[in-house]
Specification:
312 residues; alpha/beta; 4 domains; five-stranded parallel beta sheet; 21 strands; disordered C terminus
Length: 312
């Protein structure tokens, strides 16, 4: 991240900048860097903005602390959901949020419009509904805390424990996808729920091999797994030569593995049944694991997490 008070002379003095990840930069300073290499996304914000957290929920005192005429940049979304905040007071101060999206209760929607430009996407929370973050689950404690009118931000997964709670809700809104286990789908459709989409999730019956630095898939494992095998989150997967390409196509799925060692005959099938696997080939082609991958394989206690983003 480059802040707006960074010296233009400092940036112009740099020969090149290489960013492994994303770059957030004031619009006027982006052109100061002679050679800029960014592996991720490059975003700019107006120079006269103060940067706030990517997801920002103003507290009930923010309208008192906000600066007169100040612009605030929020990278992802603003949640105007705290009951005590005065949006009218923010409007009187000519405060502006620069953000692609904002959530606001229906009763405050008119006041919120003055705080954003026309490019921002407005999501109105129905009157009387409590705003629930995506990390929450539908539970008995949640109903006690927030009541029987709920608005879930993002996706919501229903379980055998949460389905009976639907009968106690006056209204349930889900801004994302509602995930319903296949065996509970019939019970779910009896209730009045509004959501962007419904996805019926089938029960996973395959054998799952996961979270290991090295996994070997042989014919015996495949034969003992009539529903198929899912291999995920491993450093190196080795596929036994006795497994045919048709076996792989019919019974194997590979997800989030750093490398797959297979025969030349198996390679095409492995490509078809793999996702997020950067290296596929024979042991001779791939060579001995080196670097961080080699270190992981030699540790006694290793859990493999191959992810685009991971927060520890």
């Amino acid at each position: 991240m480059i802040y707006s008070d960074t010296s233009r002379q400092t940036l112009e003095a740099l020969r090149a900048v290489n960013v492994t990840g994303s770059l957030l930069c004031p619009a006027s300073l982006l052109t100061c860097i002679k050679e800029l290499y960014v592996t991720g996304e490059t975003k700019t914000y107006p120079d006269d903005c103060i940067i706030l957290p990517p997801v920002f929920t103003p507290d009930e005192y923010f309208h008192l602390r906000a600066r007169e005429g100040q612009k605030y940049y929020v990278e992802q979304e603003v949640r105007l959901t705290v009951p005590g905040i005065s949006l009218a007071a923010l409007g009187d101060k000519k405060v502006q949020f620069i953000s692609p999206r904002f959530f606001v209760p229906a009763e405050k929607a008119a006041d919120a419009l003055e705080l954003f430009d026309e490019k921002a996407s407005m999501v109105v929370i129905p009157r009387g509904c409590a705003f629930i973050d995506a990390c929450e689950e539908l539970s008995e404690n949640l109903l006690r805390k927030y009541g029987n009118r709920l608005f879930f931000r993002g996706d919501l997964t229903l379980t055998a424990e949460s389905i009976p709670l639907l009968s106690r809700l006056e209204k349930l809104y889900v801004s994302g996808t509602l995930l319903v286990p296949e065996n509970l789908a019939e019970d779910f459709y009896q209730f009045d729920v509004e959501c962007s989409s419904v996805k019926v999730v089938k029960e996973e019956k395959r054998r799952i091999l996961e979270n290991s630095p090295r996994i070997i898939l042989d014919k015996n494992i495949l034969t003992a797994s009539p529903q198929g095998v899912l291999v995920q989150n491993c450093a190196v997967l080795t596929i036994d030569e006795n497994i045919t390409p048709q076996d792989i196509l019919d019974h194997v799925e590979i997800v989030n593995c750093a490398r797959v060692d297979c025969s030349e005959n198996q390679k095409a099938a492995v490509y078809q049944k793999s996702s997020n696997v950067p290296q596929i080939g024979s042991r001779e082609e791939n060579g001995e694991p080196s670097g961080m991958l080699g270190i992981l394989l030699n540790l006694a206690e290793t859990k493999m997490i191959n992810a685009d983003k991971y927060v520890l």
